[in-house]
């Protein structure tokens, strides 16, 4: 049974009321990224099941070394991104929105 256009409209209205119009683009972006990761994992699992893929698959055991075509990472940008990811938010700060 296909949903009628009024049912779809009601569901969209409820979603907008629950999440707010400002959060919908971020929500859609995160769902898209999750779907992409899921597809890649399913593809990797399917590739592992094939016997010829196991022999050709290579693994990297050490950190990647930038080659002549790859630019060196910027330590200032990397350190600040790492610091922001590791530090919890300040409970006294007002919420961002």
TrEMBL record:
Q: Which Gene3D superfamilies match?
A: 1.20.5.3310
The source's domain of life comes to: Bacteria
Q: Where is the composition biased (Pro residues)?
A: 65-74, 88-97
Q: Where is this region: Disordered?
A: 47-97
User: What GO MF annotations does this protein's record show?
Assistant: protein transmembrane transporter activity
**Which InterPro entries is this protein grouped with?**
TatA/B/E, TatA/E
Composition skew (Low complexity), residue ranges: 53-64
Which GO CC terms are listed, alphabetically? Answer: TAT protein transport complex
Query: In Gene Ontology terms, what is a biological process of this protein?
Result: protein transport by the Tat complex
Q: How does the record classify its membrane topology? A: Single-pass membrane protein
Q: Identify the keywords attached in UniProt to this record, alphabetized.
A: Cell membrane, Membrane, Protein transport, Translocation, Transmembrane, Transmembrane helix, Transport
HAMAP family linked: TatA_E (MF_00236)
Q: Which PANTHER family match?
A: SEC-INDEPENDENT PROTEIN TRANSLOCASE PROTEIN TATA
Q: What does this protein do?
A: Part of the twin-arginine translocation (Tat) system that transports large folded proteins containing a characteristic twin-arginine motif in their signal peptide across membranes. TatA could form the protein-conducting channel of the Tat system.
The UniProt family comment states: Belongs to the TatA/E family.
Binding partners and assembly? The Tat system comprises two distinct complexes: a TatABC complex, containing multiple copies of TatA, TatB and TatC subunits, and a separate TatA complex, containing only TatA subunits. Substrates initially bind to the TatABC complex, which probably triggers association of the separate TatA complex to form the active translocon.
The name of this protein is: Sec-independent protein translocase protein TatA
- Organism of provenance: Cellulomonas shaoxiangyii
């Amino acid at each position: 049974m296909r949903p009628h256009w009024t049912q779809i409209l009601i569901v969209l209205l409820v979603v907008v009321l629950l999440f707010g119009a400002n959060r919908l683009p971020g929500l859609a972006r995160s769902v898209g990224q999750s779907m992409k990761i899921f597809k890649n994992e399913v593809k990797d699992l399917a590739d592992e099941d094939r016997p010829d893929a196991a022999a050709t698959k290579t693994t990297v055991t050490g950190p990647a070394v930038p080659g002549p075509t790859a630019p060196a990472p910027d330590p200032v940008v990397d350190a600040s991104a790492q610091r922001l990811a590791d530090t919890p938010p300040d409970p006294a700060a007002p919420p961002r929105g």
